[in-house]
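Session log. Operator J.P. requested a structure for one protein chain; no other inputs attached. Running the standard single-chain path with token output.
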Amino acid sequence: MKGLIWLTWRQHRWPIVVSAVITAAMTAAMALTASRLGSMVAKCATAQPPCTNTDPEPSHASYLMNSLVFLPVLIAVFWGVPLLAREFEQRTLPLAWSQDVSRQKWLWGKTAVMIVLVGAMGTILAAESEHLAHQYHAYTGDSLFDGTQFQAGGWMPLTLALAWLAVGIAAGAATRRVLAAIAVVGGLWIVRMVVMVKLRGQFMTPLHVIKPFKVSDRGADTVHAVVTNDMSLNGGSQSFIDVHGATYSPQVVMDGWCGRADNIGTCLQQHGIVGTLNKYQPASRMGTFHLIENGMNLGLFVIALAVAWWCVKKTRTTVV
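Structure written below.
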């Protein structure tokens, strides 16, 4: 095993060193930004007049969290893909596997070293990004259920990094070409980004609440609103609801009925519209959603390693 650890270091030392430097720099930047945001939250809590959101720190926090979201695909490209694809291209694997180390031991030994290193860096980044996301939420009021904040919390940077390391290894094993494997990783990453945005809000059945234009005679206990940390699923287009519970699209109400009305409020009352229907996932489900998505990431991690193992197992060691 010592020989494999030394071999992995010799072959991948530059990606390892660069990644360690990036991890240290991003951790320091996130800690500093989170500290500044925390100070601003404390200062603004008692400030008169109220604070205005003109400071650059929230933007810095947003940039850092967005950068963190894309780190896993870089790990796949610079750590995972070269592990097998570069060896296939240089035709060094048949020679390596013909020595005392079997192909399975070679694969799992080098993969284990990378998993430990990526896991350690991912743990550090995930812990600090969780802290930063909460400070960002405390200052801006943006929901922790939003895409970037959600992916920065709940230890998702760690499971994403491990999953995409394995995807890069599997792509390299399947294609045996570095550029082809990078193309596969890039395509899968784009699919993942598109699919998860649509799928995440459907992990559990969404809730619906009526947000009235004013408190109705039925009492304040019937009045609900989507609170800050909920995940809104309205997509910027809330349906209108009337006194009988029937719903209407914004096109019907605003473009058809009241688009040219002098007084929109009066027009809405004439059609019996009492409020908008909000579709959302409550903040209380955030932990469950993180568990579901982390489970999906770890499932992808296992499947990708199984694909890599199968490809290595089927590889002929005879040099043609």
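Operator note: The radius of gyration is 26 Å.
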